[in-house]
């Protein structure tokens, strides 16, 4: 009986000794997710949804939202003309920028002409959620 109680106590103590939540790792993951989601929308031609991924999108006037969505559409048209479009992307790195209070998400873009370019997409925590800066 004593052995069972001792074993039970050890299990309870071991369960309570979980590794503390790594807030920076959570921030990296959340920033990465919003960047990936926004670029998936961008590749799908869902420009309004890309705007929704931006910090402050909920307070943008409708005309400004339309202008930002149009800028994304024009960007994709330029990439289509210059490189045959963006065929895919992948996250190559994520770094915290403590000076600016944001995460820098590095994406490796692959274009239709098989050229590649690494870009940096800043993400910031806005009202408790990670968004594009």
The low-confidence runs, each spanning 5 or more residues with pLDDT under 50, are 2-10
Content-based structural category: alpha+beta
Mean pLDDT: 88
Radius of gyration: 21 Å
E-strand count? 4
Q: What's the arrangement of strands in the largest beta sheet?
A: 1-2-3-4
Tally the structural domains.
1
What is the 3D shape? flat
Share in helix: 40-55%
What would CATH call the architecture? Roll
What is the third-level CATH name, the topology?
Nuclear Transport Factor 2, Chain: A
Major sheet characteristics: 4 strands, antiparallel
Task: Identify the quaternary structure here.
Answer: single chain
Instruction: Indicate the CATH class.
Output: Alpha Beta
Q: Spell out the helices and strands N to C.
A: HHHHEEEE
Head-to-tail CA distance between termini: 60 Å
Question: Count of DSSP helices?
Answer: 4
Commentary on this structure:
This protein is an alpha+beta fold and 133 residues long. The chain has a single domain (22-132), classed as Nuclear Transport Factor 2, Chain: A (Roll), CATH 3.10.450. Helix content is 48%, strand content 28%. The chain has 4 helices and 4 strands. The chain has helices at 2-16, 23-43, 47-52, 62-83, and strands at 86-97, 102-111, 116-126, 129-132. A 4-stranded antiparallel beta sheet has the order 1-2-3-4. The N and C termini lie far apart (60 Å). The relative contact order is 0.16. The model is unreliable at 2-10 (pLDDT under 50).
């Amino acid at each position: 009986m004593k052995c069972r109680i001792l074993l039970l106590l050890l299990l309870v103590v071991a369960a309570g000794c979980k590794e503390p939540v790594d807030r920076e790792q959570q921030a990296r993951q959340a920033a990465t997710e919003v960047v990936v989601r926004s670029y998936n929308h961008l590749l799908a031609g869902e420009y309004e949804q890309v705007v929704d991924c931006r910090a402050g999108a909920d307070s943008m006037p409708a005309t400004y939202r339309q202008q930002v969505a149009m800028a994304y559409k024009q960007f994709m048209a330029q990439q289509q003309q210059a490189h045959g479009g963006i065929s895919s992307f992948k996250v190559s790195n994520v770094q915290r920028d403590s000076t600016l209070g944001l995460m820098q998400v590095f994406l490796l873009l692959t274009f239709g002409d098989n050229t590649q370019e690494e870009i940096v997409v800043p993400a910031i925590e806005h009202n408790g959620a990670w968004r594009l800066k």
